[in-house]
Amino acid sequence: MSDTEYQCRWCSRSFTRERTLASHVCEKKRRWMIADEPSSRIAFQVWLDFMRHVSPHAKKQRTIEDFIRSPDYLSFVKFANYLIELKPVESEKFIKWLFKMNVRISDWQKPGTYALYVQENSKRETAERAVERTLLTIKEWSEETNIPWQEFFDQAPPVAVMNLIVMGRISPWILYSSTKAQNMLEKMEPGQLATIARSIDTQWWIKKIKRHPEEVQWISTILQ
Questions:
Q1: Fewest C-beta atoms under 10 Å: which of 99, 145, 175, 203?
Q2: Residue 192's pLDDT is what?
Q3: Whole-number pLDDT of residue 2
Q4: Do residues 100 and 136 share a domain?
Q5: What pTM did the predictor assign?
Q6: Residue 184 in domain
Q7: What is the rounded CA–CA span in Å between residue 112 and residue 118?
């Protein structure tokens, strides 16, 4: 009988047969086996960025094995799946914002966290960038529905428009500068308007729009 032992590199469990080791799957080995899946790759990259943020002077180069053994592995994979489903506006900027604001990892997936990011990001955005992003969203809708993009605010279901506003894909710059957007808001139910009001700082935007009449005129011309 052979005294050779075969040991799992991940959990250190020993086996008398190499074939048994090959078929063995512990939690960390499972993580290694799915390392190339999209959620795992995104999670690893976010973890790397996070570790650079919290330990900017660390000299050791972190590896996928370090990530697999990390106690925060599951939290980052869950967040990666959240990103894939959410498809946030400018995801890299969202992630950096989480780090900058020192948001706890356990709060990264809370709806209120993303809502606050959308609200703050839109306030810092230029009118030009807001129009660019919004037009990309509207043209995606046009391609999906085969309806000219110029008819978006006339033809898109109010609930769909509401969701795009809440998700940050339609900027308040457009809502308060475009006559067509204002007409769309008038079609909405009170509950839909209340949802939008909670997602943007209405009074802040009313004041901003009054201070920037040239941008308002420019946006209105593009989206007329």
A1: 203
A2: 94
A3: 52
A4: no
A5: 0.85
A6: yes
A7: 10
